[in-house]
Specification:
322 residues, alpha/beta, Peroxisomal Thiolase, Chain A, domain 1, 5-stranded mixed β-sheet, 31% helix, 23% strand
Length: 322
Amino acid sequence: MYAKFKSIGAYVPPKVLTNKDLEKIVDTSDEWITKRTGIKTRHITEDEVTSDLAYKATLDALKNANMDKEEIDLIIVATITPDYFNMPSTACVVGDKLGIVRPAFDISAACTGFIYALANAKAFIESGMYKNVLIIGAETLSKIVNWKDRTTCVLFGDGAGAAIISATDNKEEAILDIDINANGKYQDYLITPGRGVKYGCDTDKIYLEMKGNETFKVAVRTLSQSVRDILKRNNLTSDEIDWFIPHQANYRIIDAVARAIDMPKEKCVLTVQKYGNTSSASIPMAINEMYKNGKLKRGDMMLLDAFGGGFTWGSALVPFSN
C-alpha cells in the first residue's frame, strides 16, 4: 500500500494588509519591505481563529477531491497558533466543525509543519492503519506578532491550506520520499518565549521573536543541503522536477536556495508577495495557487522544501495525483 497526494484546498481571510498600510503602523516603507522580503501584501484575520481557517480550507480540499467528510479517517493540523494552548488541539476543534468523530492531533514544527504532517500521513497509510488522512497547515500569525517591531510584523500573514492524503496500490502516483529533521541548538533564533511553562503567562514575552540574519544564514544552508540529499537519494536532478515549492518565508531565501540547487526560476513557485510568511500554511497554499491557476497537472513532480523554528526542516518529492 502506498500514499498519494489526492487533493489540495486553501483559504485566506478577506482582509488585506498592504505595505502602505504598515507604513502607518511602524517606521517602515513599501520600498524597504519589498527589497528585503519580496512581500507586498498579506491577509489578516479579524473575527476568525485558526480552526475557522483550517475548516474552510478543508471544505475546499474535500470539494476538489470529490470526497465526503465521512471518508476522512484521521485529522492532523500543523500550527504554531492553535485556538488553545495545550488543549484541546485545533485538530479536535476542526473535527467538531466538520461534524465527525475521528482521531485528531496537532503538530508543532513551525514552518516545516506541513511536511511533518505529510510524513505522518504517509506512515499511517503505508502501515495500513488509515486510508484517508486530512492534513492541514493553518496559522493566524497576526495574533502573535508584535505590531511595534518592524523587523517581524512586516513578514507574517494568516491563512490555511489542506490536503487529502489517500491510500493507493499504484506506485506511480505514490509520494516518492520525505526527509524531515531538527536541531534544537538554534532554538532561541526563532521563538515565542511566553507561550509555555518556562515563562508561564508572561505578557511581555508572548510575541514572536527572531534573530533575522542568523536565521537567514542557517535556513539557506540547511534548505539547500536537504534538497541535495533527497534528490541524490532518489537519483533525480532538478531537470526532473516540474515544480519547486518551497516555504514562502522571504524571496531572498527562496532565490538563494534555488540558485544553490540549480533550480530554474520558471520552476520556482512564488506566493510570498501576495500572502507573506504563513508558516505551516505556506506550502499547501502555494500548491493550491498552482492548482487553481491550472498550472499544476496530474503527475507533475513537486519538490517541497521548508525550514522553521526549532530549528526544523524537511523536503518531499510528491507527484500530484488529483
